[in-house]
Amino acid sequence: MLSQGTPASVLRRVASVAAAGMLLFTAPPAQADDVRGGQRQVIKTLELTQAWRVSKGAGVTVAVLDSGVDPRHRDLTGSVRVGKDFTAGANPPGVAPRRLHGTYMASLIAGHGHGPEGKLGIIGVAPEADVLSVRVILEDEEPGFREFNSAERFENVVARGIRYAVDEGADVINMSISKELATREERAAIRYAISKGVVLVAAAGNDGDRKIDGDFAPYSYPAAFPGVVSVGATDRRLRRATFSNWNSSVQVAAPGVDIMGAGPGDEYWVGRGTSQATALVSGVAALIKAKYPDMLPPVVAQALTASATDRPPGGYDTATGFGVVHAARALAEAGRLAGHTETATGPEAQDPAKPLAGGQTGPIKVIVRDDRRVTVYAAIAAAAAVGALASLTVIFTLVRRVRRAHISQDA
């Protein structure tokens, strides 16, 4: 049996002194709170300070389909609802889930910090959003990992997790997970989520150093499904991180190297991977949905892509997609599109003579990716076209499992 989703990231723990609430680094600390200081580059790249003047994600629920979230972490308290565990029975009785990867991702999405005015600890992209924790994977140190990845009863936990999250009221679903092959049940679950207005964001995978026929890195699911925002990772120079998968499923990118996040038991971790990049993009999607709750998933995706920075030559490539997500610009673009949301997928969109919301006329074109084409969303003016996907019959390679490891420097 094929392995179910595995976290797409590599982590290392940052030692902490619990009594003082301070972090210890091998280098002298740059400021009193090294955790928030360690987030400075991400906050700057996404222009979060500017974005927070418009939206902080209030009223939005982001489902984190992962290894579980620690609801007691001081940077997440009051923001996490623990949902269903679809891995139940894989671990031996009495073994508690580790919840490292899931807690880390949740903190990047909705961490609210702690201490005076929340200025200590992790601040997520959407600090006022709520998190629904849905456990659909085990981390490889858990004793039931082998059972989980071989028993037939766990084959469609991701599909079941998606449907559960939708029915529990999720507005955005973060899937910092990846697996080698698609299933019919997963495809149907994604179609169901989109039909309910839920934005789906998934990791492109960490096999960027491997090539299929020399032309592209392996495709990963659920990221490569039509309608899912597939996220690649960039390094500190906002170029494709060497581990990030490059293929025509990649829609946008976000920082994915040396990303500070929270771990269970009030710990903090630094890591790299398309997992982290995906969580950041899910946070931006949450900001948009909070401001424009009725905005349809294709239009949210259009806001993310049309506003991206560091665009590649020609507007698109398989390394970083349409560019690096920018929270402040994405909200501005969403505001521009908000008046057109209701007609974006209806027959009226094809009638250039019919007035649109706001008194404008003209078509809104939403081109949804099918099995052989990358999704292209366009509004008012046509977006850049993207080449056809490679055949889905290629045998894909499972991305590397999450492991504690020292971060290697990107070239």
Automatic annotation (TrEMBL):
The processes (GO biological process) annotated in the record are: proteolysis
Active site per the UniProt annotation: D66, H101, S275
* UniProt entry keywords in alphabetical sequence: Hydrolase, Membrane, Protease, Serine protease, Signal, Transmembrane, Transmembrane helix
Protein name in UniProt = Type VII secretion-associated serine protease mycosin
MF-aspect GO terms: serine-type endopeptidase activity
The UniProt transmembrane annotation reads 376-399
List the taxonomic lineage: Bacteria, Bacillati, Actinomycetota, Actinomycetes, Streptosporangiales
**Where does this protein come from, organism-wise?**
Nonomuraea polychroma
- Residues of the Peptidase S8/S53 domain: 57-323
Residue spans making up a coiled coil are: none
Annotated stretches, region: Disordered = 341-361
- What family is it from? Belongs to the peptidase S8 family.
Q: Where is the signal peptide?
A: 1-32
Q: Superkingdom of the source?
A: Bacteria
